[in-house]
Amino acid sequence: MNSRTLSPLLSLCRMARHLVCIVAWLWVSGVVHAQDTSPVIVAGSKFPADAGPLFRVDGGERKFLIPQGYFRSRVAGYASKDAWWLEALWPDLTPWRENNPADDKEFHAPGGGRMIKMEVGFGGKNMATFLNRLINENEPGDPGYGYKSPFNFPDDTTDKRIKGDQRYGLQPYYVDFNKVLVFLNRDRKVPIITLDEVAKSRWNDWFIRRDSAGTVSTLIRCDSREVADPPEAAITGRGIALVPHCEHKILLPKYNARVDISYRRVFLPQWQAIDDAVRALLTKFETTQP
Fold this sequence. Notes:
By secondary structure, this protein is of the alpha+beta class. Helix content is 22%, strand content 23%. This is DUF5117 domain-containing protein.
């Protein structure tokens, strides 16, 4: 779409300053690439009726039917052929349901509550080693192989981190804050002596599982263990307490897809159950209908 077509919309946005207008501009300009996600009626649906109408979406070369209640902000436009953004409540991966005030409260709980967020991306080369590349274990032929960062970050490889004892079937690699302080003070005349929890929350610990060949099959990055989980009473949604979270990355070779799952760190001991449930949910969405 050319600038002449967009100009009236941009002018209207400046005048109205309304979210709907901004979304409309993003839509027509191609920033939000939504599919033709018209609701469809499916006999014998696998999902409860109050999860909203089913929307037919593409995922790579596959077809899927997804209830509206799973889409972030309940807008089916949050899906393209290459990516989806979904939300559900743990432990059942329950979607938002119509006319259910309790769901509204849960999906807007301070600190994230039981919310599980899923960002699903399709396509990409060398997907088998994608998670290895995220921790800078590049192999010949991988994108970025041979690249060395000029900044010498203190946490970008496992050998710069503190290797801990196994937890929940995962190998942890914790941030070494002694190295972080050296890194942060490299150009400072007045050195930083200590870091508070806010500063430490900007650094994450890694939890890794590998297959027999050493390829990373699960990568979970959580706010540092030195950031304490606050009492539930302190989580008010007004910035009173830091609420540590994790970003859990998995691969779905069947779909040539990767999934970023985010949730509160208190759920880390249940990572395997979350992993299994997300995989099963995405399989449940798949359809053979044209």
